[in-house]
């Protein structure tokens, strides 16, 4: 009879068990209790623990019961979302977007702020009239008055006109921001007038990775022009010619240019601009190289990218097109 009473006290694991009295209050019976525990296993629809009834006590173990429809079994592997950010779009939005480390952006913005303060307030400005004259001569707004412009200054002026093309070929295809709505092309256009001073704000706001470029997009303007080997070849040839023109000038010409750098605000800030563009170029070359899955075969070009203008131009001539990178990604996915 005790066994029948014990069996009838066991209820489904989804319901609570009533407290049982200790065995000391049970009526004595001639039927002896078994010497082994009675185990009741859960069914397949619930993740309950075993209920063990001791031959001396009938106090059941605690039942942390959970429905299989509302909770995950402890033996099942953890559920991992296919979207790390908790967002099916892979980012964007304020819901599941991962927290961004703003340290680099803050430091870069602080650097740009200090740079602009130096340009407007601290840069040497001893020859403002001469600066206007030089600018008119370089823009061909001044007729032939017999004055011969400094060769290094002329070379610097023309090489600065080519830098926006180099950066547009590096930024527009593979350095757009997929996690922000800020386009890159306005900054590239402004760099035609402001150089690195106009590009650094985009570097601050840049949020990788770049969005996938559709096949229809890189087959039309402007990506078709920016991906063209002819464009890269012309830029490299022009850079070699301009560099040779500057190097072929004598030492006196370079000394004269250095004097201009110390006193002319126009030449001073343009020289700093050239140095900044040359400094940032290797990073964007590496970013472009990685986006094209070419960071292994093309890694030997990274040291050459440190050569001002010529290194980036050579990389643009030798890099694989976006179509090859797209096929490589498709092969890896399959």
From TrEMBL:
GO terms for cellular component: plasma membrane. Coiled coil: none annotated. Keywords: Membrane, Transmembrane, Transmembrane helix. It comes from the Eukaryota. The chain crosses the membrane at residues 106-123, 152-172, 184-204, 230-254, 266-286, 298-318. Residues 68-99 are annotated as: Disordered. The keyword Lipid metabolism does not apply. The keyword Transmembrane applies. This is Cardiolipin synthase N-terminal domain-containing protein. It comes from Salvia divinorum.
């Amino acid at each position: 009879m005790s066994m029948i009473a014990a069996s009838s006290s066991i209820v489904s694991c989804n319901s609570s068990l009533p407290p049982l009295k200790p065995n000391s209050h049970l009526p004595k019976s001639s039927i002896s209790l078994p010497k082994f525990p009675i185990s009741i296993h859960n069914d397949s629809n619930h993740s309950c623990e075993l209920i063990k009834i001791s031959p001396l006590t009938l106090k059941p173990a605690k039942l942390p019961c959970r429905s299989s429809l509302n909770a995950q079994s402890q033996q099942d592997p953890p559920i991992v979302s296919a979207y790390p950010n908790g967002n099916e779009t892979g980012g964007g939005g304020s819901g599941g977007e991962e927290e961004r480390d703003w340290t680099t952006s803050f430091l870069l913005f602080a650097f740009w702020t200090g740079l602009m303060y130096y340009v407007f307030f601290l840069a040497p400005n001893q020859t403002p009239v001469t600066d206007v004259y030089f600018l008119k001569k370089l823009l061909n707004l001044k007729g032939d008055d017999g004055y011969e412009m400094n060769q290094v200054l002329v070379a610097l002026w023309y090489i600065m006109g080519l830098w926006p093309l180099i950066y547009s070929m590096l930024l527009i295809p593979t350095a757009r921001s997929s996690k922000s709505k800020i386009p890159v092309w306005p900054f590239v256009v402004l760099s035609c007038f402001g150089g690195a001073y106009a590009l650094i704000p985009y570097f601050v706001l840049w949020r990788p990775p770049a969005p996938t470029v559709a096949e229809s997009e890189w087959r039309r303007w402007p990506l078709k022009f920016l991906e063209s080997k002819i464009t890269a070849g012309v830029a490299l040839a022009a850079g070699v010619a301009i560099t040779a023109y500057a190097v072929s000038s004598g030492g006196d010409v370079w000394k004269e240019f250095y004097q201009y750098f110390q006193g002319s605000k126009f030449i001073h800030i343009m020289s700093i601009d050239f140095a900044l563009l040359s400094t940032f170029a290797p990073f964007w070359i590496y970013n472009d190289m990685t986006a094209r899955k070419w960071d292994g075969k093309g890694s030997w070009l990274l040291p050459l990218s440190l050569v001002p203008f010529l290194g980036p131009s050579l990389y643009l001539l030798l890099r694989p097109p976006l179509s090859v990178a797209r096929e490589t990604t498709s092969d890896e996915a399959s």
